[in-house]
Amino acid sequence: MDKDLQLTTRAGEVDKVAAQEAIEDDRKRTEQAHQGGTLERYINSVSTVNFSFVLQCSWEAAAVTFQFALSNGGPASIVYGSILAGFGTTLVVTSLAEMASMDPTVGAQYRWSATFAPKWPRFFGLMQGWITVFAWICSCTSNPALISNIITGLVIFNNPDYVPKQWHATLLMWAVTSLPFFANFYFRKLLNPFEAVGAILHVVFFLVSIITLVVLAPRSPTDYVFKTLTHDSGWEQPVVAFGIGLLTVAYPLTGFDGVMHMSDEVKKTRVRVPRSMIFSVVLNAIMQFAFLTTVLFTIGDPAVVAADSLPIIQVYYQATGSKPATNLFVIIICIIIFVSFFNIFASVSRLIWAFSRDNGLPFSSTFAKVHPTLKMPLNALLLLGGSLCVLAIINIGSTTAFNAFISLPALGLYISYFTPILFIFIRRLSTKHPTPIPWGPFRLGRLGPFINFGAMVYILFALCWLPLPSFRPVNGETMNYAGPITGFIILFAIGDWCVSGRKRFKVPVLRRAEYEY
């Protein structure tokens, strides 16, 4: 107790959150010294908000993928799906933000699942860890894929004679991946200005795009935007087409937990991380809805737009009538997605480091090390970069197989969100548990069970549609491999548990707060 008081004084902070954080950091340095070291807190409040806000870049991601929803559900799916996804994701992020306030840790979902599991915490912690790590690696793959598609689309737009090859996309993905890999060596120096530039572009260019389209583009009828429900993909049931089209607007709003994986480097993380997560989802959901609704009202000729390899190019071109202006608009979208990739790359490397620190991965001692000079998990960063390069090779042999790694993140991340929310929901209703829930500064109170329940209903609804193929008839080219691959990862994790995981994996222990909030 005397030591805790000394550390509190040393912290130089007058509020309880910062004082407790100083105590916890000292304990971490002592307890984890033999595991490869700990990270240092250096991310301030503004950078925390910008990190999560730009990481999602929801309206930009929707802008370069909305063509898939035009065939499944159409404009009505995009408009009403954006509202549903925004509301549902807000329930999900609020539920997880409460747990982030209790236990702000890099491991996030797998640690919370282990903490609140009614039984077998080690088993559920390891299963959750494998699913979360794999989902985030696949999510990290989607950014260079999107950037590669944007570059290819611009080349075709400016040079119609160009015939893209699959290996061209792989080379582009390798080049795109190398940039944040090496930039992460100087992450601490680049963070503040890089995040500031990304956040400014994210907001300013959103406004510029909407103003440009509203002023210059032709208008679509109101009935086209709000009443057109298409099912041109072979799915005759409108409800199924709407559900499949939901992926276009639901996936860009996932990934809000990315800032959680940087929590060991965030100051006052119990307060700032939950705020950042909720702020990011709410604002990105509003921006995504506003941008996509504007695009539908100013889409011009839908047939011309749908026929383009990157439809947003035709939307801007029909509005401006200028190739240089169209190139500028699309290039800025590409830059914002790249800034998001920078954030995701850093976040996933920390997640791999944390899971290795708890002996979740084979050869964990190697990937749990923190470089003493760079103050970053260098080996985890190397593993992530190598994994992305290997996944990019799949694109050479099969575009269909590679596309599964694009749709996998939504499926994997939703599963990773569902498990801890279910466990905290059960814990709330339990009257026989021997210990109280260790609440943090952010608490849902009496609304907690209802918010948790609503979040689970939304996740289950989304999970019904995510594994379905986008087009029928289903064959080797149209098959959605996200479901089978996710099932394989779960079986692999169970096998790992049976072979060595049950002995190797350490259950992360949630330390009860020393202060009442």
UniProtKB/TrEMBL annotation:
InterPro entries per the UniProt record, alphabetical: AA/rel_permease1
PANTHER family: AMINO-ACID PERMEASE BAT1 (PTHR45649), GABA TRANSPORTER (EUROFUNG)-RELATED (PTHR45649:SF5)
Lineage: Eukaryota, Fungi, Dikarya, Ascomycota, Pezizomycotina
Keyword Membrane: yes
Any one GO molecular-function label of the UniProt entry: transmembrane transporter activity
Recorded superkingdom: Eukaryota
Alphabetized Pfam families for the sequence: AA_permease_2
Organism: Bimuria novae-zelandiae CBS 107.79
TM regions (residue ranges): 123-147, 167-187, 199-218, 238-256, 277-299, 328-355, 376-396, 402-426, 447-468, 480-499
Keyword presence, Transcription: no
Keyword tags: Membrane, Transmembrane, Transmembrane helix, Transport
Subcellular location: Membrane
Membrane topology, record value: Multi-pass membrane protein
Name of the protein: Amino acid transporter
GO cellular component labels: membrane
